[in-house]
Design goal:
By secondary structure, this protein is mostly helical. The protein contains five helices and two strands, in the order H-H-E-H-H-E-H. The structure holds iron/sulfur cluster.
Length: about 160
């Protein structure tokens, strides 16, 4: 700590690093861009409906799971204070206790924003071109923060990396 002539001692600041500042700026910009991309995805699928049975969130049963870039994982992770423990039914850990509702709905990854359940109803044609565009945009957002990231990873891989 640095002594002041008058008054209490000042706390010494950590050394400012241009690289760290650039990275922090890139991460904030990526989080905003991801938020905008999620809203675009919701708009693209806005004509579709499902009965909200959460069947698509029964990951062990369906054998499918969302794949996330790190920027998505971090958005998801920051939406909950703690990563929930595994569920006995093999459903996604982010389901509520009854297994009916996503507890991270506003931060759910892009893969969870598409209606891949056979119960979904809506226009005859899915917004495939818009989804391709959004996937490319998502990659570019992810690489704006981590240019060398190899690609998206399954949710279970992120949970394993987090030690859960
Ligand atoms: S994150 Fe939410 S929407 Fe996605 S699989 Fe898990 S509970 Fe379902």
């Amino acid at each position: 700590m640095t002594e002041r002539v008058n008054g209490p001692p000042l706390q010494q600041h950590r050394t400012w690093s241009p690289d760290a500042a650039r990275q922090a700026h890139a991460e904030r910009a990526a989080a905003r861009a991801l938020d905008a991309l999620y809203r675009q995805a919701d708009t693209a699928w806005s004509g579709f409906r499902c009965p909200a049975s959460a069947e698509c969130c029964q990951l062990a049963e369906t054998g499918r799971q969302p794949w996330l870039w790190r920027v998505e994982w971090e958005a998801l992770r920051s939406a909950v204070p703690e990563i929930p423990p595994p569920r006995p039914d093999g459903g996604c850990r982010f389901l509520d206790a009854e297994g009916r509702r996503c507890t991270v709905y506003s931060a759910r990854p892009l893969g969870c924003r598409t209606y891949f359940c056979h119960r979904a109803t809506g226009p005859a044609r899915e917004p495939a071109e818009e989804m391709d565009r959004l996937q490319r945009r998502l990659e570019s957002i992810a690489r704006s923060v981590r240019p060398d990231e190899s690609g998206p990873r399954p949710l279970t891989a992120w949970l394993e990396e987090a030690g859960r």
